[in-house]
Structure prediction request, 770 residues.
Amino acid sequence: MITPSLNEVAKKMHDAARGAGWPQGIAAEIGAAAAWLSAQGANGVGIALDALRSAPSPVEAWQNGDDIWRIGPGPVALVGPSALDLALTGDGPVCMTLDDSPALFLGFAGWASTQTEQRITLDGAIAAQIDAGHLLGAPHNDPARRDILITLQPGVAQHPPGLGRQTPGATAWTEAESFAAKTRVPTTETSRTRGAGADGIDAD
Amino acid sequence: MNDLTHIPPKTLALRPPDMVMRLARMGASFPTRLSFLRVLMRRLHQDKVSVTRRLWEMTPEGYGRAVYTLTLGGHSYALVAFSHALDTEDRTDRVIAERWDTTYALFDGLPKRGDLDRLEANVPLQEAGRVSPRELVLSRANKSVRLFDHVVDALANGQQPDTEKLFATGYLMRTTAVYGNGKFGLADRAQIAGRPGLGGAFQAEMLTVWLIRHFTHDLVDHIAKAQAPERAVSLSNENKRLLGIGNATGLGMAPFLATHPELTHAWVLARETALARIRALPTASASDKAAFAQALDQAIAHVETWDVAAPTQMARIHGLRRDLSAIRDLTRTGCLDAPHPWENLSLEALAYGLEAQECLNAVMMEPYGALIDDLAMEMQTGVPKRLSPRMCLDELATIIRQTYAWALKIDFDDPGETHQFWYVSEDKAEPRLGVRAEEPGGELETPLDIARQVQGLDRALREAHPTDSVAAFLMRRPDQRHVVDRVQSIATHPYGEIRDNLIGQACLPIDLLRFKLAFFGATRFDPKSDRWTRITLCQGAPLVGEIAKVDPDGWALWSPPRAIAA
Prediction:
């Protein structure tokens, strides 16, 4: 069983997401979210793996005559980044509804908060506050709910980066690798003969 | 800050990205005083760093382990080195190798016996082992056997080795990988990003290379002494300076530049800002001109001793020799006494080859450390900024037209423009480049086809409503998220984009390698194909025992003193 670095988690889950068929930009968000969750001591690899198994579906957003945007239902891998995009336009709070586990959304929000230095408040299926990438207190889950209300404020503090590591289960890491392996190509003899050091044993 | 909105007005005369970020020019890059190895040498000198050999457990044949420690920026670090017996048939520079002559870890702090035992069980395995957040860098190096044996034999016989041979090869060992930033369990870069001394770009990696060089010097001394305790002599400091560390670099390094656009921008912006500051100087003092002349002489001597087997590169070197000589003649006509001497010299140099232009840029920077060395602090980046969801699509389309005009001109219906594809190999998950019509795997292409992606986004935007926001667009088109993020990022980080088609037949990865290696501080580029090169690091650099005392910048484009005199 290994304890991967945050960079390894981000890379592995990015590649796994691509291997599972998610678009490149979404894969990058998934990798970063998994790493952010791992830095908080959560099982970022396992949570991201759960999200990869969902099927993509179209995402829509609308307003009901108030200032709240509503988005979903849909898979967290697609609804999550779009909900944060909407929230970050500054046009008001966003209420999203998911049809799979919301756990990865905490990672999406954490990474978005890190990038934008915003304070992001979540309420509903997940209740949490993240200030400039720093998780304020322990998040709460309400398994009976599938909706999350997102509100934004300017971040107020400079925080050191979270550098915690988490050991994913051996099965989870292996499964992530099996998804990631779908992006790789068997090496051909042609590529071997063109690679670094291809002139063989060298003694100068 | 690394974006163009924060440059003081006096440095606005930057060379445009359309000129700088072309593969042909990138492939003519030279190390400068902002290269990472040069930055490290200045920091080590400033801190009066002293390196201590804490442990030396070696057999007479030179197999065993060693530990070197130092304090930099208030933190202790240790190079833990392992030396192994290696069968000749196992000695290969290929990344898929499984055994090496020597393996290394840069340890964060002072290792205890238990740490050493843990490292001894893992570091020799390299990719197949696991290290921990206590380790910052993982590396390995193979002997240049013929030179290594010659040096040991000479020292054991009480003689110094043949200096011609030392300089010709330039190193006793050649690294085949220097890993950092979380690879194989190493510390994530964020762990050291804020530290004085190692906070800059690739400083931990460069420190490791410098210490490995010192270890190789100690190792030949040790083996020679073991062979002939009464007769052996130590390698002289003059000869140690002749020996840097070699490196064999292939495609594994190439995609980094395309996948780290904000970092690449920061490196180039620092260099271009330095040049702009120098070109903006109204006059050159007598001492500046003298320092420039000395640096140019040194560069000419360096190039005279730069010989490679590759005909294409050798032809370029011959051209460079002619051009530098002509430039030196030009500077002796009094042109540096006129107003704005460096701007005028830069303009004159446009008549010469790209190698000469870039070499001259490196030379012009040498006299002006006080003016430009602060820029080294701007050569790293933090967390990449998130895409701007509020931006309207017509603004995004405008950015594409302004920043990616070069990409929109490429005809991707021409098979030559999609001739190659980047992919990740099953072997150690290394980047590779395939020929689309000849090799399998095109459907698993790594998305380095930036120009083609931008064309795809441009088409998608034409079908969207121009007043829609990026947020609304990406809700419908999540497949465009990556390229939207990139286009927005490049709008404020224009040096982050290579303005050539990276999947076209004309793309030569060697240009990417030279560009990146020059920023590291590499010299004596020795291309073995258009996909990999050998280089030398630290040749002529201050030794461990003298770094606190000598000029840390006196080895720019170094060559032996004899060569300069000639």
Q: What stands out?
A: Residues 1-9 of chain B have pLDDT under 50 and may be disordered.
